[in-house]
Design goal:
The chain has 269 residues and is an alpha+beta fold. Helices cover 42% and strands 21% of the residues. It has two domains: 62 residues, Muramoyl-pentapeptide Carboxypeptidase, domain 1, CATH 1.10.101; 146 residues, L,D-transpeptidase catalytic domain-like (Beta Barrel). Helix 2 packs parallel to helix 4.
Length: 269
């Protein structure tokens, strides 16, 4: 049998453990409330009006925002990412007061608004350094989307070793697929082929950095509209800091462009 002192010691130990357990439960219960308060504080920091104003200024500069309605959705986030990429800012995809101030200042200054490398004809440009795509109209107006292009890493395709490389140069949309298509390397949405198996297409995953096997990934929400804006025969310029090829001679002499389009179709098929 246990002595009375030993019994008292055990009871005291049990009470102490029970007390510590209750304290632990209280701390755990308080943690979600703290996180929720922080989240609510973050959400409350920006009003719908402020978000709408940011969308308006982004759209004014040429970023593809979707509906300007004060709802920070996938299109709004995409426009913000494109802005951050173009301006060389930290790419977060998060709309904060600091980002709103940067958007406002850039929109007011106008000197760093997105601009096409070439004007005078409708086409598409892909800036590999900034990782953005610009649809360009005849007057030089642009709509800018973030993209993810080839990551430069080797991969195996149908038993052969390839390099995840997005070709530089001037190309023509020579083939298109409506809706989804499934390939050996994954599924693509509204593909617009420009060179071999390289296409501009919608993809659920468009990270901030190059991550594709060579294709030009664009956000899903814009894929259908981009396909409408790029009929077969659309000129696509893909460039980086050291490589740019003009397509103005194709514009001035359409027969050259048509010959290249025919050649592309024959070679790729």
């Amino acid at each position: 049998m246990l002595s009375s002192n030993a019994g008292l010691h055990i009871n005291a130990t049990k009470l102490k453990m029970k007390f510590l357990f209750i304290i632990l439960l209280l701390l755990l219960a308080a943690a979600p409330d703290t996180n929720a308060a922080q989240l609510n504080k973050h959400r409350a920091s920006l009003t719908r009006t402020q978000t709408k104003q940011a969308e308006q200024r982004l759209a004014e500069m040429g970023y593809w925002t979707g509906a300007v309605d004060g709802v920070f959705d996938a299109a709004s986030r995409s426009a913000l990412i494109a802005f951050q990429k173009w301006e060389g800012r930290s790419i977060t995809g998060k709309l904060t007061r600091a980002e709103i101030e940067a958007i406002r200042a850039t929109a007011d200054a106008q000197d760093t608004w997105p601009r096409a490398r070439e004007n005078g004809y409708p086409h598409v440009e892909v800036d590999l350094d900034r990782q953005v795509l610009l649809t360009v109209d005849e007057e030089g107006g642009v709509r800018v989307l973030p993209v993810s292009t080839g990551n430069g890493k080797p991969f195996i395709d149908q038993g052969e070793k390839s390099l995840a490389y997005t070709p530089r140069g001037r190309f023509i949309v020579y083939d298109k697929i409506t809706g989804w298509e499934k390939g050996a390397l994954g599924s693509m949405y509204y593909s617009n082929y420009i060179s071999g198996g390289v296409a501009i297409h919608g993809h659920p995953n468009v990270p901030f950095y190059p991550a594709s096997h060579g294709c030009i990934r664009i956000p899903m929400f814009a894929a259908r509209e981009v396909s409408k804006l790029t009929p077969i025969g659309t000129i696509v310029l893909v460039y980086d800091k050291v490589s740019f090829v003009s397509a103005k001679d194709w514009v001035e002499k359409p027969e050259l462009k048509e010959a290249f389009l025919l050649w592309s179709k024959v070679v790729e098929n």
